[in-house]
Write a structure and sequence with these properties.
The chain folds into 2 domains: 136 residues, Rossmann fold (3-Layer(aba) Sandwich); 62 residues, Arc Repressor Mutant, subunit A (Orthogonal Bundle), CATH 1.10.10.10. The protein contains 10 helices and 6 strands, in the order E-H-E-H-E-H-E-H-E-H-E-H-H-H-H-H. The chain has a 6-stranded parallel sheet with strand order 2-1-3-4-5-6, sandwiched between helices. Helix 2 runs parallel beside helix 3 and helix 6 packs across helix 10. The protein is globular, with a radius of gyration of 18 Å.
Length: 211
């Protein structure tokens, strides 16, 4: 059972979203709040959800500030942004704080369900539109030299272009998960990124992989 929490300042939307998600297979909403301060309080005082659906514009702490707090606390919560904000700045800031997906509120029920399932299975979900925004940002901002990679790092980078989980990648590479984690951390450091999608987009812009 995938547990979900919702932080959105529009209660009618929040209640409707709760009913929708509870109708999905193997999903259950465990709490809802209407502002960022309440979200942090619930995360501190209650069982953590597997996924937090997080709006950006809310009273008190906004969604970006909540995502930053979760990132700093290193909480094992997958944050999925669900918002009306479609500007590059909001997308990039949320991704910098480890958000695992970014959806607009005009999303279909089917895509929302696919996003939840993808986050559970693969750890992330990004739409083509958001991926393009990130790619454009990196293309305009990236002036760094191409990192020098060892053979095993190159191999891991190629596997990370697939939908394989890190456990499955470890099996393919005949390595332990902890060793793959070490290689992954080294890649993140070399490319100066914080997550898998950021790594792939930057490596793609440098011509090291093709997405």
């Amino acid at each position: 059972m995938t547990t979900v929490a919702i932080a959105d300042d529009h209660k009618i939307f929040c209640d409707s979203l709760e009913s929708l998600i509870n109708a999905f297979d193997a999903c259950k909403v465990i709490w809802t709040v209407q502002n960022g301060d309440q979200a942090i309080k619930m995360l501190q005082e209650n069982d953590l959800p597997d996924i937090l659906l997080l709006d950006i514009n809310m009273p008190g702490k906004n969604g970006i500030e909540v995502a930053e707090w979760i990132f700093q606390q290193n909480l094992p919560v997958h944050v999925l942004a669900l918002t009306m904000e479609n500007d590059d700045n909001s997308v990039i800031k949320m991704l910098q704080y480890g958000v695992k997906g970014y959806l607009l509120k005009n999303v279909s029920a089917e895509e929302l369900q696919n996003a939840l399932q993808s986050i559970v299975k693969y750890g992330y979900y990004y739409t083509p539109h958001v991926t393009k925004q990130i790619g454009n940002f990196i293309a305009h901002k990236n002036s760094e030299p191409v990192p020098v990679l060892k053979d095993r790092e190159k191999e891991l980078l190629q596997y990370m272009c697939t939908d394989l989980s890190y456990m499955e990648i470890a099996e393919k590479m005949f390595l332990s998960e902890s060793t793959v984690d070490s290689y992954r951390a080294r890649l993140f450091e070399k490319f100066n990124v914080k997550n898998r999608i950021g790594l792939l987009l930057k490596a793609n812009s440098m011509g090291l992989i093709k997405l």
